[in-house]
Amino acid sequence: MKEKVVLGLSGGVDSSVSAALLQQQGYEVHALYLNAGFTPPDEARAAAQTMGIPFSVLNTQAAMERCVCRPFADSYAHGRTPNPCILCNPAVKFAALCAHADRIGAPYIATGHYARAAGGAIFKGHPENDQSYMLCRLTRAQAARLVLPLGEYPKREVRHLAEQLGVAAAKKPDSMEICFIPANDYAAWLEQRGVCPPPGNFVFHGEVIGRHEGLHRYTVGQRRGLGSFEGRRLYVSALHPERNEVELALWEELFTHEVHASAFSWLIDRPDGPFRASVRVRHTKWENPMATVTPDGGGVYILTDDAVRAPAPGQSAVLYDGDRLLGGGFICTN
Could you give the CA distance from residue 190 to residue 209 in angstroms, rounded to a whole number? Predict the structure, then answer.
């Protein structure tokens, strides 16, 4: 008898190929489309019908507003830069997949993330397109049920598989936008929700050098739109909502060896004392230095061997033991 797995199916190339691979691996695949009210489920329904997969739609608009959109807007209003996918995955997407799996008696859940899962642990996916960072706040119960069919594949091979399998989305371009922010215009979306911090001062080395257009338009590490000062390229190094100031710095001043992360979510037993791990402070592949990590209450203090660039409050500091994902917490100010 085939074991059931509930797959989050969007109708895109990754989830559609995941469905086909799970079928090849002998699973009884049940597709679930999470309808957050941003796009219709037509493509997902068509993909499921083509593959003969039972298809369900779950309305997640209220959960998205409560767990993702509202905290996202609030964070920006307070000078933080959250990653909405990291907020969504444990609280909305994977919670919904597990709940639907419980309803139909499925022991497993699956998504099209480029990461690997085995024995309740999560590991980095193929180096070209690893997405394990986005899974850092899954619960251990969610990870224990997780199947990730794409972990060993580079994206180009998945597209090739999609063409071979006749997947309708094979040539559909990847979406780089956040699902609930039209045209990736953060500022416009925030302003529509009433997050409109007033203009304030740009400060460089203690000197006011200009005026900014509102804290919600800037993120730590940003260069775009800042111009130069006395021939020097400047970057956002900090946001100070209490003073309504955007602090600027030179490139070399963005780097630090110290990172604090709060509300750390562990995928292993919480260590009792300092330990060694590698850390990633943003969803990039080239910054993953070794560090000494010290648990500190509900968070961690991270001292990196090599400096990391502009860790932004609100983003996630994610720890690894080799390829194994250990968990993640929210970067906070020192």
Answer: 26
| Distance (Å, whole) CA 54 – CA 14 | 18
Query: Would you call 88 a catalytic residue per the annotation?
Result: yes
Paired strand residues for 320: 278, 325
Tokens 């045209």 correspond to what residue? 183
Please tell me the pTM assigned to this model: 0.94
Rounded Cα distance between 92 and 96, Å, is: 6
- Per the annotation, the verdict on 179 as an active-site residue is yes
Q: pLDDT for 137-166, tens place per residue? A: 999 999 999 999 999 999 999 999 999 888
Catalytic entry in 67, 69, 85, 88: 88
Name the nearest CA neighbour of 232 among 251, 254, 259: 251
* SS3 labels along 310-334: CCCCCCEEEEEECCEEEEEEEEECC
pLDDT, tens only, 96-130: 999 999 999 999 999 999 999 999 999 999 988 99
